[in-house]
Amino acid sequence: MNSEELQYQIFASQDSSYPLAHRYSTSIITNPDYSEDMLREIIKSVTWELRQMISYRSDRFKMDFGDKGADIAIVFLYKDDIDVQNHNYVCRSCWCSSELTEEAKQICFIGNDKLDEIEIDWNPDYNQRRNNYRLFSQS
Prior knowledge:
The chain is an alpha+beta fold. The chain has one domain. It contains five helices and six strands, in the order ββααβαβαββα. The protein has helices at 36-52, 59-65, 81-85, 102-105, 126-138; strands at 8-15, 23-30, 72-78, 91-96, 113-115, 118-122. It has a six-stranded mixed beta sheet. It is globular, with a radius of gyration of 16 Å. The relative contact order is 0.18.
């Protein structure tokens, strides 16, 4: 299945720029049955879309960054609404432009996986937390 056939829903996106970098972040819900490889394809596709965005939360940032795409793109990936409510992401990813200064890159995290230039941080506690939340919500 190629990335165009994979289904996901963007439920939150924002310009979270700061003076050193033009940054976008988004949260998405995917099919809970997708494999890690499928999720990686979604991350790659969504990251590319974020990198191309030209949107600003204020006139100040519009003046600072002009018509430039993102310097940083962050994606949080969830499997359903309950995961979203509990901020129990399957993974988060971060792409940082190689043109950023080291100071600006400090906002980026190092993941436990990598896809090209994208750092992916798979949540090692995801399944345990998911089970706990479901047990708690049933009681």
